[in-house]
Amino acid sequence: MSAGLVAAALFTPGVAACTTTGDAGSTATPSATASGAAPQVDSDAKQALLDSTREISNGNFRFSMSGAGSVAEGQVHQPSQSAEMRIRLGEPTDDLAISLDLVHAKPDSWVKLDLKGSAATRVPGVDRLNLGKYQHLDQNRIQGDRNLGFDFDQVDPAGSEVLTQAVTEAQRTGDGTYTGTIDLSKAADAGSLDPTLITALGPQGSAVPFTATTDAQGRLTELVVQLPQSGQAAGQEIKVTYSDYGNATEATKPPADQVVEAPPELYNLFD
Predict the structure, then answer these.
(1) Residue 222 belongs to what H/E stretch?
(2) pLDDT value of residue 1
(3) What whole-number distance in Å separates Cα of residue 122 and Cα of residue 99?
(4) Partners of 135 in the β-ladder
(5) CA angle 218, 190, 1 (to 5 degrees)
(6) Which terminus, N or C, of the chain has the lesser number of Cβ atoms within 10 Å?
(7) Strand order in the sheet with 259-261
(8) Cβ count within 10 A of residue 125
């Protein structure tokens, strides 16, 4: 598994399956199929989805993202300019399983990395990565990095605002529930998707099924996107959830005796 692939796999379920020893297709969630009838355009439903992401921009919430072989969860606390995220790529029984514990407290960032599996010993500099300590990150090296960096001007790791803006069809199916399609070619900036995956989907990415749920205040609580099968990659499901709006807490900085400076091998792993 290449270093670049590690970075892509964190939030790209189709790629994440490359870390496993089994058949990715055996656990994939089937993608939705067209019914043959064009869905009815509901402008009120689309506007409700657009409005549902406004509270996210305030930067005070907990979240999770999941796909085949990858899970991320954490919180954003804009009042303290801090955030934290725990990422797991692969399972302990896979050839390579990666766990990251990220903490951002502006202007600093730290990551604790854990590589497991038979392939972990072949990762360059693994002895300098698997330290059991937090590694202090150079902001100049991680600026703009989709995996290690964090932009407090764009506080949603999943990019749900971008995804809802790319909605092409939407219907309200119940109280706070919606379904429709998204044009992923217009959502390349969403953190829950890798741009190379969108390119690989080609025309299939122009009408990808989704479901969404909002709470009693109209705030987004769940967004599920069904990626179609593409080439060798089986159909996959990306699920994003939000909770505890306004009730996140300041991230806890790692103690000084548990911190070392990140070595070059760490940045190389995500290049």
Answers:
(1) strand 220-227
(2) 34
(3) 16
(4) 111, 260
(5) 135
(6) C
(7) 167-174, 177-182, 208-214, 220-227, 236-243, 60-67, 70-77, 82-89, 97-105, 108-116, 134-136, 259-261
(8) 13
Contact 97, 89 (CB under 8 A): yes
- What region, left, alpha or beta, does residue 231 occupy, with left being phi > 0 and alpha being psi -120 to 50 degrees? left
d(CA 43, CA 168): 10
pLDDT at 24: 38
* Amino acid of residue 83: A
pLDDT tens-digit series, residues 166-211: 999 999 999 999 999 999 999 988 888 878 778 888 898 899 999 9
Contact 104, 154 (CB under 8 A): no
Q: State the number of CA atoms in the 13 A half-sphere of 26 facing the CB.
A: 4
6, 53, 121, 200, 223 from 58: Cα distances, Å: 30, 10, 42, 33, 19
Output helix, strand, coil percentages for the chain, rounded to the nearest 5.
30, 30, 40
| pLDDT score, position 15 | 36
DSSP character at residue 21: S
Does the pTM of the predicted model rise above 0.85? no
Closest-CA residue to 100 (of 243, 266, 230, 232): 266
Alpha helices (H) in the chain, listed in sequence order: 3-9, 13-16, 43-52, 126-129, 139-142, 160-165, 195-201, 264-269
